Amino acid sequence: MTKAQSVDFGTDHMRARSELAKRMRTLPRLDRFLIIDDEISDAKWLVSSLKLVCGHGIDIRHVRSLGTALDALKAAIPQLLFLDDRISPVDTATNTIPFIRRAGYAGPIVVVSGSMTRRRASELIRQGAASMIHKDDIESARVAALLIELFGDAKKAF
Length: 158
What we know:
The mean pLDDT is 87. The chain is globular, with a radius of gyration of 17 Å. The protein has one domain (3-151): Response regulator (Rossmann fold), CATH 3.40.50. The chain has helices spanning 3-6, 11-24, 40-54, 66-75, 93-102, 118-127, 140-151, and strands at residues 32-36, 59-63, 80-84, 86-87, 91-92, 109-113, 131-134. The protein is α/β, with parallel strands linked by helices. It starts with a helix and ends in a 7-residue tail after the last helix. It has seven helices and seven strands; from the N terminus they run ααβαβαβββαβαβα. It is 47% helix and 18% strand.
């Protein structure tokens, strides 16, 4: 370890986190989310990360099936929808995205997956997903970066 490395103490990491926080302040207020995931524990990680990034006063609805998701979309349209890649034994993001779009949701869909390949990611983008996040990457800094990616460019219209 060099002398310069020994006195760093993670300042690069803190600088990067600070930059994310600054960029988050330029985004529109994000306070309405829908999570479609049949695993409660996976959804809880995402809920915690969203609250850390967007504040505790946000509306996060979690549903565990496509039918309940369609009802939730009829009740209130979220700004961002997180969709588990595999719901129940038969539903996948590929066959669920068209139902979500037909229900009137035109916003970004982020597919959450425990095993994402490049081929699968390409297929999901063609189906209408805006982005993907691996279940192992769900933490506040990655969620903040994802929100910046989706909402940071004023030219994007969802």
